[in-house]
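Okay, is this right?
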Amino acid sequence: MEKKLHTFLQSGLLDKYVLDETSASESLKVEHYIQTYPEVEQEYLRLQDNLEILAKAHSVEAPQFILDNILDDVEEDATPIIKVKPFRRKTPWYSIAASIIALVFAGSTLLMYQQNQLLLKENQVVVDEIFDLRSDIDENNKRLDDVMRKFMKLKNTETEKYVLRGNERAKDLKTVAYINAVDKTSMIDVISLPQLPKNHTYQIWAEMQDRMVNLGILDPSERELQSIPYMEDALGLSITIEPSGNKDNTSESAVAEIELKNRNN
């Protein structure tokens, strides 16, 4: 690039341009270099200043009588003076190119803005998905903690295990009850429950000294370890088949029964 610039400065085109001796194509070339390279612009301004200084140094003031004679001749000559419009150079090609570049830049800026807005929306979707995922992880951790707590209770040496098997009315019934008299907790694991009509339910009861206490309904579709109320001094557990909404226990409705160990001994 420096070699190209040096070659141009040595070509003499800039000097010819200052003296207005260049052709149209040469003028365009010189104007391009002036606009592009600060070194050329600086040299051009220097040459203009030198030309102006040189013109002033060689100027000679005309005698007053010459000016008077010219004015007399002008008054005698009635020929009208035609005003010449100042010459305007056409817009240089680099100005047009600059305008085009500006338009392209504006279009690129708008496109980048639109893409940035789209990216922000996509990022928000990702953030929402991460938030939902964290919520799911927290929920799963809570479930895992609950399972671990139940598992630790099952492994506790104070926890007693009772298997309830169905009688002739529910041969496939099998559940396991876990009772810890120290922690005063009771859980039941539903292994299998035969399907019942829609208007009947399985209910679990605690047999007390003088009454039966309902501990809740067993859902055949629920296969997780379930907590049930702990009953102090319960003598046994039983599972019955009852009409939906029924809260009364009868010995005839029992399909599985088991006696509990005497925990007071």
